[in-house]
Specification:
single chain, 255 residues, alpha/beta, six-stranded mixed sheet
Length: 255
């Protein structure tokens, strides 16, 4: 059975570790720092066979050189020549097999232009989405446009509702505070704040989330909801869902 556990790294990153009960070989996603990965591998007698990379930011690839030198894993990531060490470059429509599961690759530009996500169907479906979709939020637009990010989020929101969302950062509480401002009558957001605060008080991650839950609490997936659009209209154009998204994202940048 495939299990996924978080490895906290840097200030608020999660490196996701996938493993099967039947083998010591494991896969990690977005290794921004090698040391916590090496520590777990050595403590538990595991071998790093595969690395998945969603985009080129240093806090997602900073550990690659040391891990490649030490373990010589397969390294799968976006077709970006600035990422050294990739053994397989993938894009929209490609697939790869990791830990006995088939993963579909989706291009999800917005946060960066090279950003991809890895999705595997199953029970439950799993999505490793880096900095595109967060719980109650989405990534800042460093390279892409609001139109690109909105399309990317629409693509991800079309995945099965029971998909588990494995995002790259522990941003949930901050995102929920913005969600409460953007969607002030949403009781699901209020309940989510209580749940997230309880988890953080116990030093537990708020991730993974479920896609169905994100559709209830994430304002960036709710641009067509009248309450979200009405609140966003106080900050900019809301003539379309795409315009509402752009207004929300600009508002969040200064929130």
């Amino acid at each position: 059975m495939l299990s996924v556990t978080p490895i906290p790294a840097l200030s608020d990153n999660y490196i996701w570790l996938m493993r099967q009960d039947t083998t010591p070989e494991v896969c990690v996603v977005d290794p921004g720092d090698a040391e916590p990965i090496i520590r777990i591998l050595e403590q538990e007698g595991l071998t790093l066979s595969t690395i998945l990379v969603t985009h080129h930011h240093p806090d997602h690839i900073g550990g690659l050189p040391k891990l490649i030198e030490r373990y010589s894993p397969q390294v799968i990531g976006p077709d970006n020549p600035d990422i050294d060490g990739l053994t397989e470059r993938v894009g929209e429509g490609d697939t790869c097999r990791v830990m006995g599961r088939r993963f579909d690759v989706h291009e999800v530009p917005g946060h960066t232009l090279d950003h991809i996500a890895f999705f595997t169907a199953g029970i439950p479906p799993l999505l490793f989405c880096g900095d595109t979709l967060f719980s109650a939020g989405c990534g800042r637009l460093f390279e892409g446009t609001p139109e690109q990010m909105h399309r990317s989020l629409q693509l991800l929101s079309g995945l099965p509702d029971d998909t588990l969302i494995f995002a790259g950062h522990e941003y949930t509480l901050a995102n929920l505070r913005f969600a409460q401002a953007a969607d002030p009558h949403n009781r699901d957001v209020t309940d989510a704040i209580v749940e997230a605060q309880r988890a953080r008080d116990l030093d537990r991650p708020t991730l993974p989330s479920h896609l169905a839950r994100e559709k209830r609490i994430n304002p960036f997936l709710r641009c067509g909801e009248p309450d979200v659009r009405a609140t966003a209209a106080q900050h900019g154009n809301t003539d379309t869902d795409q315009a509402t998204f752009a207004t929300l994202r600009a508002w969040k940048d200064s929130f």
